[in-house]
Amino acid sequence: MCIWDSLHFEDLFKWWNQLEKSEHPYNDGSRHQVVLVERYLNGTSKRYLLDDEFHLTTILEDESKSNGYSLKELPWLPDIVKDFVLPAGFPGSVSEDYLEYMLLQFPTNVTAWICHTLVTSSLLKAVGLDYSSGTTAAASAAAIRWVSKDGIGAVGRFFIGGRFGNLFDDDPKQWRMYADFIGSAGSIFDLCTPLYPAYFLPLASLGNLAKAVARGLKDPSFRVIQNHFAVSGNLGDVAAKEEVWEVSAQLIGLGLGILVLSTPGLVRSYPVLASTWMTVRLLHLWLRYQSLSALQFDTVNLKRARILVNLHVSNSTVLGCEECNKMENILSWEKFSVPRIVFGVSFSDMLGGDRSGLKVKKLLELYAKEKYILVVNQEPFKDFETLVSFKDGATSLSVLRSIWQAYWLYNNRSSQDNLFDQLKASLNELDHQFDNFLQQLKDIGWDINQISLKVANDVLIKEVPVY
Questions:
Q1: Which single residue of 263, 328, 368, 399 could bond 453 by disulfide (Cβ 3.0 to 4.6 Å)?
Q2: Residue 322 to residue 319: CA distance in whole angstroms
Q3: Is the pLDDT of residue 269 over 50?
Q4: Using CA atoms, how far apart are residues 265 and 261, in angstroms rounded to an integer?
């Protein structure tokens, strides 16, 4: 994905006159005009040039060394590691004390887990694995196996936190529900250990891995939900009271579980135990879905934006928070939504097989006032799909505008109309109706200042210098 910035055509000839007098690498005797520049996260850029006959050429270059463009706020840390361990947009997306705290927190947690490893052998010894039972290293060996099981499970949390950390703010309902599905799958491995006791370690490790992945999804998702509850800035109090609710439920659940295990027939019959677990687990998943469905967010994420925009494009009305949240499908995936909208597409992909310079010129002129550019995919035998590329300075509001335009094009699509005529008509409707859409959202109770629509998570929004 990339961010692009168009240059004003009236400035191109001024730029060219300066270029002719310079020793610029593109000064090869032919007249080329730079019409836009794409910037990528790794510091490279792609320049789109038109000649006098509107032939389009592209040049890829590394600007990280030539003009000081760099993401390295921590020069000793590779970019791939930085993206994995630091929040998107670091350092601007976090407070100034974030890095110092995390650098001190890391060795703090290391020492905690060293202590955990050491006391595990004591716990195992206390339940019957003493040092006289065949070998003086029995408890230590068992502790190593037990801790190894936990370590394999921790890999799941490590992967989720590093790879998917920027997803939870947008759709905490979905990821909290998926956490329970994955956690249930992990419990199945644990449930199978009595059937295959010789494979206890691999089964228990797989179970821990799945449950650790579930926890990696659950914890950040629920923190977003807690923040939603804390409308008075009382997040600490909300979190503390949630602990009271959770511990109360834990004590009741443990008591009922012990009561069930005290039933002689259940203890002796593994099929009865497994079927009881399955019944209770299905009930648990149903209750989880109901609880998440009860949440009423007043922020606009991608799923809710689609619902709201679709209704407004159809009949110029919007839904309230309660109705829209009830219509939101917690389990749906964006790639299966209709119409399909692909965000953050490079300009080359948007052009497809048509490398016409005239098309480039028309698109830039058409979207001169917008912070994005949108086209309809013209590939044959393909369902309706829009491709969106963002300009430098695009915001969440820009994403919402592109969604509105995509839905208008979808609802008013015609195979007879010219592509540019359709785009021009959709932009005219966007200019006339989008402000009314925002006002209706505000009047009915939506927080239009908290639009959770990300431009492009792996792109640095940076002003493009003009040469």
A1: 399
A2: 8
A3: yes
A4: 9
Higher pLDDT among residues 219 and 138, named by residue: 219
* 67 has a pLDDT exceeding 50: no
pLDDT bucket at 340, cuts 50 / 70 / 90: very high
What is the DSSP code string of 448-467?
Answer: TT-B---S-TT----PPPP-
Mean pLDDT computed over 163-181: 77
Q: How far apart are CA 445 and CA 253, in angstroms?
A: 39
Largest CA distance in the chain: 94
Spell out a b/e string for 392-405, using b for 16 or more CB atoms within 10 Å of the CB, else e: bebbbebbbbbbbb
Alpha helices in 328-418 (DSSP H): 347-351, 357-366, 396-411
The neighbouring-strand residues paired with 62 are 44
Mean pLDDT of 88-109: 70
User: Is the CA virtual torsion 332, 336, 341, 343 positive or negative?
Assistant: positive
Mention every residue, 6+ apart, whose C-beta is less than 8 A from residue 296. 321, 322, 325
Going from the C-alpha of 115 to that of each of 10, 101, 108, 373, 415, the distances in angstroms are 68, 21, 11, 55, 69
Pairing of strands 340-343, 32-39: unpaired
Q: For tokens 């469905």, what's the residue?
A: 293
Query: How confident is the model over 36-53, as a mean pLDDT?
Result: 69
Q: Give the CB-side neighbour count of residue 382, counting CA atoms within 13 A.
A: 10
User: Apex CA 361: angle with CA 359 and CA 367, to 5°?
Assistant: 100
Pairing verdict, β 385-391 and 340-343: parallel
Closest by CA position to 164, among listed 208, 109, 221, 210: 221
43 and 459 Cβ atoms separated by less than 8 Å: no
Query: How far is residue 417's CA from residue 206's CA, in Å, rounded to a whole number?
Result: 56
Q: Give per-residue pLDDT as tens, 295-314.
A: 999 999 999 999 999 999 99
In degrees rounded to 5, what are phi and psi of residue 420?
-70, -30
Is 0.90 topped by the overall pTM?
Answer: no
- Segment 413-442 mean pLDDT: 90
Using alpha carbons only, give the angle 59, 65, 70 rounded to the nearest 5 degrees. 100
